[in-house]
Write a structure and sequence with these properties.
This protein is mostly beta strands and 282 residues long. It is 7% helix and 41% strand. It has one domain (2-280). Strands 6-7-8-9-4-1-12 form a seven-stranded mixed sheet, with no helix packed on it. A seven-stranded mixed sheet has the order 5-10-3-2-13-15-14, covered by helices on one side. Strands 11-16-17-18 form a four-stranded antiparallel sheet, with no helix packed on it.
Length: 282
């Protein structure tokens, strides 16, 4: 899962999305992401994440999980106990207009309101992590995901290195779906929507409206959950593994209305959002 600007390899992908009512920020989404990247290009490289955020994001939207690197693994254990296996370094947060550049674990992140804003900010990424400009990919996102916001996560580890989990919170622009960036393209080319790609990801979803006794819910036993994350992360989740050849797309689940809901892991699908509508791929 993810789109890289140059040739790269990503393994061990764990993804989380949840709807939540935060005591300070109100109705939000929380997105979690962790993998093991390996740069296969000569220079720096980067992966691009897109967020369906309704309000402008900044570096404060990423949460410090440096003391809790096992959170997403704990979620995996919750939905697959039979398979259980048992940080953030804050750099300078430079700001210019609506583009932020800052360090997080093995990444230098360029956070932008528009994909077209990212190329002009690459000069602010350290040379060893700075990827070559790939206009085709930025043009693809500009056309395909209007109104989304973007995090370009720059890295340059030649050996596979597991990153600390990233957790982002944002105000959603659409309350009808839980949506995760799952579209794949690892060779520096724009994604080919609907093409068959190899998938190997765990996907977890939650809601503050999820009943404790929901038939599909699994309680997460966190190894350690810092105080700064307790209002952002759930007690119960649903989840499943996606593997093998599947059509390219994001991960999505429609949300029911009402104060109390069930979430069915079987309803998590690979999908494409177009003009606010779900184009189901699986």
């Amino acid at each position: 899962m993810c789109v890289s600007l140059q040739d790269a390899e990503f393994t061990g992908t764990l993804l989380y999305i949840g709807e939540n009512i935060h005591p300070q920020h109100g109705e939000i989404r929380v997105l979690g992401y962790q993998n093991t990247p390996k740069n296969k290009s000569k220079g720096g490289n980067a992966m691009l994440l897109h967020f369906p955020a309704g309000k402008l994001m900044n570096p404060d939207n990423i949460l410090d999980a440096s003391k809790a690197r096992s959170i997403l693994k704990d979620m995996k254990d919750a939905v697959s106990p039979q398979m259980a296996t048992r940080g953030m370094s804050s750099g300078s947060r430079m700001k210019k207009g609506i583009v932020h550049v800052f360090d997080h674990d093995i990444y230098t992140i360029v956070l932008a309101k528009h994909a077209s804003d990212i190329p002009q900010a690459l000069s602010r990424v350290p040379v060893d992590r700075r990827p070559e400009l790939n206009r085709e990919i930025f043009e693809y996102y500009t056309q395909r995901f209007p109104g989304y916001q973007y995090a370009l996560c720059c890295f340059n580890n030649k050996e596979a290195q597991q990153a600390a989990p990233m957790f982002w919170w944002y105000t959603p622009k659409n309350n009808n779906f839980l949506e995760l960036p799952g579209i794949d393209a690892h060779d520096g080319s724009p994604p080919k929507e609907g093409a068959m790609v190899h998938v190997n990801s765990w996907v977890f979803m939650s809601s503050h409206r999820l009943r404790d006794n929901a038939i599909n819910a699994r309680r997460v036993s966190y190894t350690f959950l810092p105080d700064n994350l307790k209002d952002f992360l759930p007690k119960n989740i649903v989840g499943k593994r996606f593997s093998g050849a599947m059509k390219n797309g994001d991960y999505l689940m429609p949300l029911d209305t009402g104060p109390s809901i069930d979430l069915d892991a079987g309803r998590i699908v690979r999908s494409i959002i177009s003009n606010g509508l779900n184009q189901n791929l699986v």
